[in-house]
Amino acid sequence: MFAKRLLEKAIQHHGHAQLNVHHGNLESKDIDFQAYIHYGIPSTASILAFDPIQRLLAIGTLDGRIKVIGGDGIEGLLISTDQLPFKHLEFLQNQCFLVSLSNGNYIQVWNLESRSAASCLQWESNITAFSVISGSSFIYIGDECGSLSVLKFDAEDGKLLRLPYHITANVAGISSLDHGPIVGVLHQHCPTGNRVLVAYQSGLLVLWDVAEAQAVFVGGDNDLQLKEEKVDSTSEVLHNPTGQYLGEKEISALCWASSDESVLAVGYVDGDILFWNTSNASSRKTQEANSLSSNVVRLQLSSEERRLPIVILQWSPLKKSHNGLLFIYGGDQIGSDELLTVLNLEWSSGLGVLKCIGRADVTLAGSFADMILTSGVGMPGGNHDADVFVLTNPGKLHLYDHACLYNLMSQQEGKATISGLEYEAVIPTSNPVMTVAKLIKLPTGECLITDLVETSPAVTIPKPGNTKWPLTGGVPGELSTTKKHMIERLYISGYQDGSVRICDATHPILSSICILQREVQEVQVADSSAPVSSLDLCISTLSLAVGDDRGLVYIYNLKKSTETSSFHLVTDSNHEVHALPQERENCKAVFSLLKSPVQVLLFANDGSKLAVGYQCGQVNVLDMNSFSPLFCSDSSRGFSSPVISMTWKSCSNISNLFKTPKHRETGVPVTPADEVLFVLTKDAKVFIVEGRMKSSGSLQLKKKSSPISMYVIEVERSAPSKQAPDDASAKESTPEEGQAPNDSHDTKQPSEDSHSGDGILDSFVLLCLEDSLQLYSTKSVIQGNNKTICKVKHAKRCCWTSTFKKDEAECGLILLYQTGDIEIRSLPDLELVRESSLMSILRWNYKAKIDKTMSSDCGQIAMVNGGELAFISLTSGEANSRILEFLPCLHDKVLAAAADAALNIPSFQKKKAAVSGILEGIAKGFKVGKAAPTGDSTLNPRSTLINLEAIFSKSPFPDPSPTASNNQDVLSSSPNTDDKEPELSIDDIDIDDPIPSTSASSHKLENNKNGTEKEKLFDGATDVSEPRIRTVEEIRAKYRKVEDASSVAADARNKLLERQEKLERISRRTAELQSGAEDFASLANELVKTMENRKWWHI
Prior knowledge:
WD40_repeat_dom_sf; Thrombin, subunit H
C-alpha cells in the first residue's frame, strides 16, 4: 500500500497537468488461464489407443495427460487431476468417450466433446487387467485377487455402474489353487457374444461363457504336453521335434490370432509364444481325456536360452481365415537391438502344421513404448490392410505401412528394416529445431488471407509406399474451414536451418501460410542458412524482418504486389540493386552491416524505420523506404554489451531535456515530431536514440543485475479532478520521496516544458530484471537519474516477461520464473493479481532456453517445450469465449450416426445394393471387415448388447436367499457404497394377479389338444423337447427391425402407458393388502385380550 500511495504521488507531481490514473484496474476475475491450443506429442508419452471408426489416436503420458490426435490439424489435450502414469487407455468406440486407468487404480471416463472428465472412481483393489467390449459401454476388470468384475458407463447419467456379474476362479469351479492375479481379458466375438477369455498370471487360461456361467475351455496346465516350434529365419517352415512338458509359465501378453477368434496367441515372461486352439471348446473332463498336444504349439524367436519377455502381441488378419501377421515386441535374446518383429503365419491344414512364410524386423528410432494397429481393435474380422503405429521414447510416433511390411517379408532378406512415416507436427519444434517465435495480432478487418503472398507452400515429405495418414477424425470449428477469412493473428517461427514459417493463428486450428527459405534467385547471399535469431513484423505495412546469427537482416514484404520487383543488397561499403522476375519472390532487401549475431529487431510504429540491436552492443537504424542505414552507434563510446531490449515511442522534440549538449553524439538536426528509441543492454544500461543522435548520458543501475526486458508504459491522462482544499494542500505540501531533486525545479517552468515531449513524459519506464522490477519516470531516465518510483523484489529468478492490454491500454505484466511459476501483476502499480504455474496449466517443467521461443500479444501466450507447442489464453470475457466457441470437436456425430446405422443393419439387408455404398462414403474411410461365418448371420451388435445387458444385470451364481437383489450399484469414491439399499425399478416388479381356475377335465383336454397339434407340426415326432420360454428382450432383439425416431417414440409412449397401468394395479393391490392387514391386526388384538383373560389351565 505504501508503494501504491507513493506511486500516486509521483504520478500527480510528474506532469504539469493533473493525472487521474485508475491503478490496479486488473482484477483476479479478469484472469483465466486456459491452454486452448496444443500441438505435438509429449516426451513422456507411454501408451496408445485407437478408435477405428472415428479415426482418432489417443496417447497417454507418464504425468497424467492424454493427447488426442485427429485429422486436418485437429488435436486436443486432456489433463487428469492425478499426475500418475496410465496402465490402460481405450476408446468406447464411436461413443464420444475415452476410458483411462491410472497406476493409482483411478478409472476415468473422458467426454471428447467437452474435453473434460465425465466420471471418475477409484477401484478398491489393484487392477491388473482391463478391457472394453468393442462397440459397447461394458468394461471387464480383472484384479490382483483373481476376480473378474463388470462395469458399465451410463452416458445419460454420466456414471459408472458396477454390475452384479462377478466371478472368481474358485467360485467358477476351475480350481481350488491360487492362480494369482488376472493379467489379461479378451472378449470373444462369438455369435452370441457371451464368451470371455481370462488369463491368470500363473499361466491358466479360461474361456468363460457368461450366459451359462461355466468354463468352456481351460488351458495352461502343468502336465500338458506340447509341440515346440522355432522361427530363426524368414523362410523356415516350422518343424515338430519331440514333445516337451509345459512347466508353470508366467503370462505377459496375449491376443486372438485368427479371424474367427478361435486361436489364442500367448506370450510369456521367458520369451516363449504359445498358440492355443480353443475351437474344441468342451467340458473339463472331455479336455482331460483328449490329448491337447496337437492343439498347442510353441514358437520361439531366438534359440538363445535367455530371452526377453514378450511385451506386446497383436494380430492383423489377412484375407484367409488362418493366415495373418503377428506383431511381436520382445522374445529376442537379451542385449539385442530395439526391434519390432512381424511374422507372416499360416496354418490352413491345422494348428499342428503352423508355418512362418515371412519375417521382418523393424529397427525402432528409440526405446519402445507401445504399438497399436489401425484395424478394428477387438472387432471381428477387422481391417485386412491394417497399418501399425509405434510409439518410442521420447514422444516419437511412426506409422508403418501394411503393404511395405508385407513386401519386405516376401523378399526373404533375413532381418530387413523399413523406415516409417514419422508424425509431422503442424508447427515443427524439434525437426528442424525452433530457435525463435513471435505471436502478432493484426488490426481487425484489414487483412484477408488471400492478400498474403504464397511464397513457398508447405514442403511435402515423400511417404514410403504412398502411405496415407490414417488419422482423419474430428470436426473443425465453423470459421476454421472458411477459405477466405480475415486474419487476426499470425504465428511466425524461425529455425536452426534458416527457414521461417508463417501460420494463421486466428482460430484454434493453426494453418500454414508459407515457408521462407531465405534464398534469393539469381543473387548470391553468403550464409543464407544461418540459424534465425530474431524476428519482427510491422502490422501497418506487413513487412517482415528476419535476423540471423551471422548478422544478416532480411526484409520481406508479405503483401501481394503487382509492381516490378527489385532486390537491395546492402553491405557496410556497397549498395546493390537487382531486378528480379516477378514470380513468388518477396524478399526486398538483405543488410550485411556487422558480423555479429542479431539480438533484437524492432520496426517503428509506421514501419518507416527498423532498429537492429547486435550482440556486440551496437545499434543500427535502417530506412525502410530507401533500404539504407540511417544511424549506426559508435562502439568506441563504450557501448559493447549485448542489446537485450528496444522500444520505440512517439514524442516531440526532447533535446532540451538532456542535461548538456555534450551528451549528444552528433549535431545533426532532429525532426520535431519523431520517435525515440529506448535501448537496454545486458549490463543494465539504458540509452536513447533520437533521430540520428544518441544520448551518451545513459541510465546506469546502482546494483548490477541481469536485465530481461524493458517497457515504456503510457499513463491515461484526464482532466484535473476536483479535490477538497484540505486534501489538495496536503498533497502539495507532502514531499515526494522518490522524485529526483531537479524535478521540483522543472515544475516551476511550465512554459518551457509544456510542449517538450508531451506524450512521452506522461509515461514510465519499467525495467524487468532477474531479481526485481523497477519503475522509473521517463523524464528521469532521459536525464540519467536512477531514482525508482516503485520496486518489487523477486523471491525467485525471473526469466521472461511480457505486457498485455485491456481496452486498448496496457494493464498487466506477465512474469515467468525459472521454477515454472507464473505471475500476473497490474500496471503501473505492479500489484500481484494472480498466480499459476506451467505445471498446473500444461504439466510442463521449466527447461533452459524456454524463454527464447515464448511470445505474447493481447493476452495470448505461445510457448514451446521440446516437441510441444501450446497457446495459453490469460484473460476471461468475450474474447476468450469466442476462442473456446470455435474449438474443433474431437467427435464426429454425423460419422457416428452413419457407422452405427451401418453396423446395426442385419446381414440380409446389407445385400441390398446401394445402402452400404452410401454409408461407406459418409463414414470417411470406415471399413467393416468380413466376420467369419460362425453362427446366426442375422445377429447384429444391437441384439448382442441387449443379451449382455440382461446377462450382466444379475449374478452368475444367484443367492438362494429371497432378499437377494439383482440391481446395479452405482460406484462412487465413498467406501460404504455397497452398504446402500438398492433401488427397485417398476419393471422389476411382478404383480401376482389371480389366475382364473379351470377344471381338471378341461385342462386334460387342452393338453391332449396341444399334443395333437405338436405331433401334426413335427410329423408325428414324439421326442421333441419342450420350447424354451424367451424373454421380451430376446424376442425384440431377434425379430425387431431397425427403427426410426417415430417408432422409437411410439415404443417409449407404449412403455409409459404400460408402467402407468402397472402402477394403478400396484395401488389397488396395496390398498387391498392394507385393508387386509388392518382386519388382521384387529382380530389379533381381540385374540390377545381374550387370551389374557383366560388362565393357563383353561388353555
